[in-house]
């Protein structure tokens, strides 16, 4: 439970250490019986509440170690307490939802998060995280107004949720609401790097969109410094196209190499100069953690099927009215899809959208 509290306050490394210690203590009590009668597959996961594995899975999602996160979720689901403890049940639903979001499965993420609030009775943290998942799904499906509306109930009382909500408000085109959320954060104690990183990236994007590139670069560099020790990757990988040019400039490029962006080791060295030591704990059976390969920050954004249809017709120089007639949609619906495509591609005009889509091999 202490590990869970650390995670909810933005301290990934602390949460991981405490969860690994709890898992080690639980396993000393001995493994559970084999997974099947007469099976030679060995014992199942050791005893425990399951919360320790869920915390480790949540940390793995934030570090973009998605395969490890799935394995830990599967282990937690096999524990006897998995269906009895409401905190564990809510945590499993929310971590599963975050994992699905990281894999680009927005609708499945909403369905996975739905049980969280009803399972954990009157749980503010579960309710806030469920709203974040729903808002992110609306954004992914091209509904920024709905995404912003969902976030009305998220306040500064939970700093991690507040900074994620601020990032979503900004992505939905509401910078003032995003900044207000950050300014309203009320933390009873010191908040962790996840809060600092998220807040810095939101303020960096606000500065960049206001034309203050110097401030934006400084804030991104500070976010990288705070994030690299924790190997906190998801805020950068999910930030969108605006951050890519900033990460390509010094000193951000040097700060990101090796843990966020590819950086070949020098002369056989295991780590690049300046990169913090990798001290991830072992897995349940003692194997070293193997991070999932990092995606390129130049990967194409996720477009819905209808957005892709509109984009293809845009490349054929069809007018909005012609696209609407060809797809049997209203003109207003086509305009909504176009606005979403522009936002995801970080462009303002049709020609720029087609050019960027071809660069990203969407066309």
Quick synopsis:
The chain is mainly α.
Q: How would you describe this structure in keywords?
A:
mainly alpha, Arc Repressor Mutant, subunit A, globular
CATH topology of the domain at 305-359: Arc Repressor Mutant, subunit A
Task: Tell me the radius of gyration.
Answer: 22 Å
Query: How many β-strand runs?
Result: 0
Shape: globular
Give the CATH superfamily of the domain at 305-359. Winged helix-like DNA-binding domain superfamily/Winged helix DNA-binding domain
How would you portray this structure in words?
- With 363 residues, the chain is mainly α.
- The protein is built from 19 helices and no strands.
- The chain has a domain at 305-359: Orthogonal Bundle (Arc Repressor Mutant, subunit A).
- Helix 1 (2-8) runs antiparallel to helix 2 (12-28) and helix 17 crosses helix 18 (331-345).
- The chain is globular.
- The model is unreliable at 32-46, 116-120 and 264-291 (pLDDT under 50).
Layout of helices and strands:
Blueprint: H1 2-8, H2 12-28, H3 51-62, H4 66-77, H5 86-102, H6 106-119, H7 124-140, H8 144-150, H9 159-171, H10 175-183, H11 193-209, H12 213-228, H13 234-237, H14 244-247, H15 252-256, H16 305-315, H17 320-327, H18 331-345, H19 350-359
Helix pairs in contact: 1-2, 2-3, 3-4, 3-5, 4-5, 5-6, 5-7, 6-7, 7-8, 7-9, 9-10, 9-11, 10-11, 11-12, 16-18, 16-19, 17-18
